[in-house]
Write a structure and sequence with these properties.
This protein is an alpha+beta fold. Helix content is about 40%, strand content about 25%. The chain contains three helices and four strands. The chain has a four-stranded mixed sheet with strand order 1-2-3-4. Strand 3 and strand 4 form a beta hairpin. The longest helix has 28 residues. It is elongated.
Length: about 130
């Protein structure tokens, strides 16, 4: 079940934001925290959400800012990357990609739970009723 309003300390404990070759301003850090709250509200299973923002001035202008995201949860971690010319736009695209990964993971887990696969047994099952 989704938690409609997670405690702020819980959200802050789960989120790690880093800047690689980029000075993180308070505005950018707050923007990432606001956007990532959507992911943290979607699943209570998230242990940690790490977002790395990277600026590479040697690249062309269209892919100067890269946002890497990693969601650590039970099972395999989910990872995504987005590259654009604007740091805020990279964060938006990254959050959308991670949100889609979470939705897909939830859908697959729900499918497995509701539609288990048939199991092939080598031996014959005994007949019921003892006749």
């Amino acid at each position: 079940m989704k938690n409609p309003n997670p405690a702020p300390e819980n959200t802050a404990d789960k989120l790690i934001v880093r800047g690689v070759h980029l000075a993180l301003t308070p505005a950018l850090r707050d923007y990432v925290a606001d956007k990532s709250a959507r992911l943290l509200n979607r699943s209570e299973e998230i242990v940690r959400l790490r977002i790395d923002l990277e600026s590479d001035k040697t690249r062309d202008v269209t892919a100067r800012f890269t946002a890497h995201g990693r969601i650590e949860l039970s099972g395999p971690d989910l990872q995504a990357t987005a590259e654009t010319e604007d740091a805020y736009k990279s964060v938006d695209l990254l959050i959308d990609k991670l949100d889609e990964l979470l939705r897909r993971r939830h859908s697959l887990r729900k499918d497995r739970r509701n539609h288990p696969h048939a199991v092939e047994l080598d031996a014959d099952l005994p007949k019921a009723g003892g006749r």
